[in-house]
UniProtKB/TrEMBL annotation:
Biased composition (Basic and acidic residues): 8-20
Localization of this protein: Cytoplasm
Gene name tied to this protein: rimO
Domain MTTase N-terminal: 27-137
Radical SAM core domain boundaries: 154-387
Keywords, ordered alphabetically: 4Fe-4S, Cytoplasm, Iron, Iron-sulfur, Metal-binding, Ribonucleoprotein, Ribosomal protein, S-adenosyl-L-methionine, Transferase
E.C. number: 2.8.4.4
Protein name: Ribosomal protein uS12 methylthiotransferase RimO
Entry's Gene Ontology BP terms: tRNA modification
Pfam families cross-referenced by the UniProt entry: Radical_SAM, TRAM_2, UPF0004
GO cellular component: cytosol; ribosome
Chain ranges of the TRAM domain: 390-457
C-alpha cells in the first residue's frame, strides 16, 4: 500500500503485467513498454498479434528469445529513459527490436545502440512483426496456441484503455507528437463500440478512453455514421455508456461542444471526470505555445459545467518555465488555479525537445527559476487537493477495487484514474474484496492525495 507522490508524472501508463509460462520449444518474446497509455495500447496490439502467431510472452529478459522495447520520445528526459531501457535490454538479453515514438528517429537510436536488430516507428505493427519473424521465426502449435477472447492485456483484467484515434492536428510549439504520429486518424465508431463491448464481456469494469485529442474524434472523417454509430465524441460517449461499465474520458480539449458531454455525466452514463490539458492560463504564454488563449472564458465554461454536474472532477496538466514566461505571467497561472479549483493537477518543467519549434523562442527560463515555480505551483495544487478531499469525509461514494494485499484494499473513486490520480484505501474488513469489485464506502479520512474509508451496505 502506498500513497501518490505530489510530482507523479501524468504521462506514464500503468506498469505492464504479463506472463504465462511458455510450452516446451515455444518462441518467446519480451516487451518493455514505456510512455503513455496510448503506447501501452500499441504494445497490447503487438503482443496480441504475436500471441496469435504462437509466440509466448516473457515477463523477464532471461526467458525471452528477443525483446521489444516500445519507446517514448515526448521529452528529452523520456528519450534518455528510452535509450537507457534499450541499453538495459541489450545488456540483459542482447537481441532487441525497437519501436514506438522514438523509433521515428532511427539514427538517434542506432547512433547510441548500433547492435539493435531493427527500429520501427510508432504504430507500425506490421514492421514490428516482420522484425520479430526475422529475429525469432514463429513456430505455432494449432492445438494449443489459441488467442484469448480479449487478446493480450498489459493492464489488470478489470480496466482497459480504449484508443479511439491516432495522431493530432494541433501545432503546439512545444510538442512533436504530430511529427511522430501524424495527423488525426479516427477509428470508425462501430469498431470502437465493438471492441468496447468485447472488453466488457471479458470482465472489464472500466473503459479509459484515450487519444491525442479526444474532443476532435471523428472530425477527420466528417463524423461519419456507419452501422448505427456516429463518429462524434458525444455520440460515442453515449454508446459506450450504454455498455454498463465505467467510462472515463482522457485528453479532452475544451472545445465548445464539450459542454454536450456534461449532461451524460450528470445522468451517470459517463463518469463525471474530464482530463483537459490546459497547459497554462496567461494569454501571452498560450499564444507563444500556439494554443487557444481564452483562459478567462475557460473559467466561465468550468463554472457552467459544474452547474450541470456538481460532482465533476477536473484533471489537467500544466507547463511552468516556458520560454519567455515572466514572474507576472506565472502569477496569473497561480491566480487562475486558485479560481478554477481543479481537482487533479500534474505539472512539467519545460524542456527543449529536439525538433520542437519552442526551442527557437527567446528568453529561456533558468533551471533554478523553473524549479522554484514548479515548487510553488505544486504547493498550491496540493493545498487545493487537500481541501477538496477533506470535504469528502463523511460522504458515501462508489469505488472500484484495484488490488488487495495483507494491509488493505487499494481502490479508486470515480474521481481517480489509474496511476495518475489518488487512491482510496480500505484497511478494515476488506478480505472478501477482489480486484474489479465496485462497492460503496464511507470516507473516514483524507490526505493531500488519498482517501481512507470503510465498506457500507
Amino acid at each position: 500500500m502506498s500513497t501518490n507522490p505530489p510530482d507523479l508524472r501524468p504521462d506514464i501508463a500503468p506498469k505492464p503485467r504479463m506472463g504465462e509460462p511458455a510450452r516446451a520449444g515455444q518462441p518467446t518474446i519480451g516487451m518493455v513498454s514505456l510512455g503513455c497509455p496510448k503506447a501501452l495500447v500499441d504494445s497490447e496490439r503487438i503482443l496480441t498479434r504475436l500471441r496469435a502467431e504462437g509466440y509466448a510472452i516473457s515477463p523477464d529478459y532471461a526467458g525471452a528469445d528477443a525483446v521489444i522495447v516500445n519507446t517514448c520520445g515526448f521529452l528529452d528526459s523520456a528519450k534518455a529513459e528510452s535509450l537507457s531501457a534499450i541499453g538495459e535490454a541489450l545488456t540483459e538479453n542482447g537481441r532487441v527490436i525497437v519501436t514506438g515514438c522514438l523509433g521515428a528517429e532511427p539514427e538517434y537510436i542506432t547512433g547510441a545502440h548500433p547492435k539493435v536488430l531493427a527500429v520501427t516507428g510508432p504504430h507500425q505493427y506490421e514492421q514490428v512483426l516482420d522484425a520479430v519473424h526475422v529475429a525469432v521465426p514463429p513456430s505455432p502449435d494449432p492445438f494449443v496456441d489459441l488467442l484469448p477472447a480479449r487478446g493480450v492485456s498489459l493492464t489488470p483484467r478489470h480496466f482497459s484503455y480504449l484508443k479511439i484515434s491516432e495522431g493530432c492536428n494541433h501545432k503546439c510549439k512545444f510538442c512533436i507528437i504530430p511529427d511522430m504520429r501524424g495527423r488525426l486518424q479516427s477509428r470508425p465508431a462501430h469498431a470502437v463500440v465493438r471492441e468496447a463491448a468485447k472488453l466488457v464481456e471479458g470482465g472489464v469494469r472500466e473503459l479509459l478512453v484515450i487519444s491525442q485529442d479526444t474532443s476532435a474524434y471523428g472530425v477527420d472523417i466528417r463524423h461519419a455514421e456507419e452501422r448505427g454509430h456516429r463518429a462524434h465524441i458525444t455520440d460515442l460517449a453515449r454508446d459506450l455508456g450504454s455498455l454498463g461499465a465505467w467510462v472515463r474520458l482522457h485528453y479532452v480539449y475544451p472545445y465548445p461542444h464539450v459542454r454536450q458531454l456534461i449532461p451524460l455525466m450528470s445522468e451517470g452514463l459517463v463518469l463525471p471526470y474530464l482530463d483537459i490539458p490546459f497547459q497554462h492560463a496567461h494569454p501571452e504564454v498560450l499564444r507563444r505555445m500556439a494554443r487557444p488563449a481564452a483562459a478567462a472564458k475557460t473559467l466561465d465554461e468550468i463554472a457552467a459545467w459544474r452547474d450541470v454536474c456538481p460532482d465533476l472532477t477536473l484533471r489537467s496538466t500544466f507547463i511552468v518555465g516556458y520560454p519567455g514566461e515572466t514572474e507576472a505571467e506565472f502569477q496569473t497561472l497561480l491566480d487562475w488555479l486558485d479560481e478554477a479549483q481543479l481537482d487533479r493537477v500534474g505539472c512539467f518543467q519545460y524542456e527543449n525537445v529536439d525538433g520542437a519549434r519552442s526551442n527557437a523562442l527567446p528568453d529561456h527560463v533558468a533551471a533554478e527559476v523553473k524549479q522554484d515555480r514548479w515548487d510553488r505551483f505544486m504547493a498550491k495544487a496540493q493545498a487545493i487537493s487537500a481541501a477538496k478531499l477533506a470535504a469528502k469525509t463523511g460522504r458515501r461514494i462508489e469505488v472500484i477495487v484495484d488490488e488487495v494485499d495483507d494491509e488493505a484494499a487499494t481502490c479508486r473513486t470515480q474521481a481517480d484514474a489509474p496511476e495518475i490520480d489518488g487512491n482510496l484505501f480500505i484497511d478494515e474488513d476488506f478480505s472478501s474484496l477482489k480486484p474489479g469489485d465496485i462497492v460503496t464506502v464511507e470516507v473516514e479520512e483524507a490526505s493531500e492525495y488519498d482517501l481512507w474509508g470503510r465498506v457500507v451496505d
